[in-house]
Design goal:
Elements (H helix, E strand, L loop, with lengths): L23 E3 L5 E2 L14 E3 H29 L4 H24 L1 H15 L1 H21 L1 H11 L6 H11 L22 H13 L6 H9 L1 H5 L4 H12 L3 H6 L1 H7 L5 H13 L8 H13 L10
Antiparallel strand pairs: 1-2, 1-3
Helix pairs in contact: 1-2, 1-3, 4-5, 5-6, 7-10, 13-14
Length: about 300
């Protein structure tokens, strides 16, 4: 008997432009994490800040040190001056140069912040790995008590860590949930190279509820492992669902006509209608016999269906 899938509401996932933006660092002990916790898991203090914020702090500190050095040089020049004129010139020159340095630093704050970020990440590779390992331990413990929390932790970690172990754990958890169209789901970041029945099931589920996620990579995956998928209990259904998702765009029909042809008779009515209209709009395309099969199925099953009359 199939286990009942759990309904859930996932914590909002905040996408970032760069993976490192998910990293946070403890200002006290320099512990790294990708999770949203308030307290540092290492020292227990509420001192976690984004790595970009830490890089900006270091950039400002570096620039402050440069200004301090400029002022010290000015002070030394004043102290070693022999005349009042020399003192005035050294003081005025030092203040002017310090002012110019401050103006230049304001213009260079962003490049300097990026430089400090690269320096921070390079020098902290071991601590970052240790932090992520701690996150993984947290995820493993959470999965036992709260599968949703475990998935959300793995989802954050996957931004930084790209390996099949974490992808497979996410897929297995997703397959225990009742998925909905309004959920923030993804597919391509979860793709693994080897055949995995849970991934095939997940692709089939997305082909039903979020067809826009079925792209070339997913179609090529089910084609590569078509025989293995067909050996699954719902294998034909999975392949037909993916074929049905593919007919939403002519690009995919052009690329995979033989695949769609093999499963055209398994398409639900709405997907076959989509394919039928696409075929009618491109009379110059044969798609390796797909056009003829669509025409034959239309004549056999849908010839008198009113939905198929107003295809324009």
């Amino acid at each position: 008997m199939m286990a009942k899938k759990k309904p859930l509401i996932l914590r909002p996932y905040h996408k970032t432009r760069y993976a490192y933006e998910k990293l946070r660092i403890c200002k006290h002990c320099r512990f790294f994490t990708v999770l949203w916790e308030d307290r540092c898991a290492n020292c227990g203090r509420e001192a976690l800040i984004p790595v970009m914020q830490q890089a900006r702090i270091q950039a400002k500190r570096s620039m402050q040190n440069e200004r301090l050095i400029a002022l010290l040089i000015t002070l030394a020049a004043v102290l070693f001056s022999q005349t009042i004129l020399q003192i005035i010139l050294c003081l005025a020159g030092g203040i002017l140069l310090t002012g110019l340095l401050w103006w230049f630093q304001r213009k260079m704050i962003e490049p300097e912040t990026r430089r400090q970020l690269e320096k921070l990440l390079r020098s902290s590779e071991r601590r970052i790995i240790e932090g992520i390992y701690t996150n993984l331990t947290t995820a493993s413990a959470a999965i036992k008590d709260d599968e949703q929390l475990g998935y959300e932790i793995l989802r954050e970690m996957a931004t930084i860590v790209h390996n099949d172990r974490i992808r497979l754990q996410q897929i297995m958890l997703l397959q225990s949930f009742a998925l909905r169209k309004d959920m923030d789901l993804t597919l391509e970041p979860l793709m693994i190279s080897d055949f995995e029945p849970a991934l095939a099931e997940y692709i089939g589920e997305l082909a039903k509820i979020k067809r826009e996620l079925i792209k070339h990579k997913a179609i090529r995956y089910v084609l590569r492992y078509e025989r293995e998928i067909l050996d699954m209990k719902n294998g034909v259904r999975i392949m037909a669902l993916v074929a049905g998702a593919a007919v939403r765009m002519k690009t995919y029909v052009d690329a995979y006509p033989d695949f769609i042809l093999r499963y055209v008779r398994h398409l639900p009515k709405d997907r076959f209608l989509r394919l039928y209209r696409l075929v009618r709009r491109h009379p110059d395309q044969t798609w390796n016999g797909l056009r003829n099969e669509v025409s034959a199925l239309y004549n056999e099953k849908y010839r008198w269906d009113p939905e198929f009359q107003n295809w324009d």
